[in-house]
Amino acid sequence: MKAVRRWASPAVALVVLVVVFWRLGTGPFLDGLEAVDVRALLGAAAIVFVTTFCSAWRWTIVARGLGVRLSLPVAVAAYYRAVFLNLTLPGGVAGDVHRGVVHGRQVQDLSGALKAVVWERAAGQVVQAVMTVAVLLVLPSPVRSSMPFVALAAVTAIVAVIAVGRLRIGGARSRWTRLRNTVVADIRIGVLRPSALPAVLLTSVLVVVGHTLTFLIAAHTAGVTAPISRLLPLALLALLAMVLPSIAGWGPREGATAWVFAAAGLGAGRGAASAVTYGVLVLAASLPGAVVLCVGWLPRHRSSRTRARESEPTAPAAT
């Protein structure tokens, strides 16, 4: 059963990618690759630096609240490495798990480090969802007619979560009560404390704006000439799909982008090409993470060889 869960998400992403290939052919993918130019690469690299810096800053804020030390330079390097791993390994979250584990080992607090990663990512995704719903309520999009119901459902879900969190189920020592109290305390001191919340919101908004701007650059590079007011909702919908498990970032992004572009009358092929261009731009902009990964590996490799040499028996000196 565990193996099924492990392979289910990549399998679904692969099926989506195969369906897009089957319906659209290889043309949009080749168009997206060929459209990439130096200006787009430089623009994406600059934006990804800002979004990575903001994400790393958010991570340090949440970690500090949870009592886990984390400096900003270390966080920026680790976040670059995590972005690169997320874009090159199946699932789309391997990099985040890696940075949490590495940080936990460095500070000898694996639980606290992993919780910092979880709540930092969760805060960013909540802000992204709220911004997406707000834009989709205002600007025309293929899903605009459904957005009032989505907004109502979201508010209802939030109220339900708060209500369930306040319920007294079991005794004070029950597993549910301990779990609930831990989660509430983590969110309160990690994200919602007065000294942290403004910075968490600001960095999260900047990250969403940066990702959206990168997608708009990719769409323009791929030849889409629609106005920003028409592209913005489509970009946010595509970014929302990127939260889903994927194969190194590929799969749901191309499927969702092809669908929303087709529904908006811009063409599924142009949407898939925009998604491919976005994927190439972001992967290229994340290459500093590969450097961080290599730099982090080399000292360990050298130290292991040094320890091996030191453990070799030393020949007795001649007398």
Description of the molecule:
The chain is an all-alpha fold. It has one domain (7-297). It is 78% helix and 0% strand. It contains 13 helices and no strands. The longest helix has 29 residues, at 110-138. The chain is globular. The protein starts with a helix and ends in an 8-residue tail after the last helix.
Task: Describe, in short, the structure shown.
By secondary structure, this protein is mainly α. The protein is built from 13 helices and no strands.
Mean pLDDT: 86
H/E element sequence: HHHHHHHHHHHHH
Approximately how much beta-strand content do the residues carry?
A: under 5%
- Global Rg: 23 Å
CA-CA gap between termini:
66 Å
> Could you give the count of β-strands?
0
Please count the helical segments.
13
Biggest sheet statistics: none
The coarse overall form would be: globular
Helical amount: over 70%
- Helix-strand makeup class: mainly alpha
Provide the number of structural domains: 1
Q: Spans with pLDDT under 50 lasting ≥5 residues?
A: 310-319
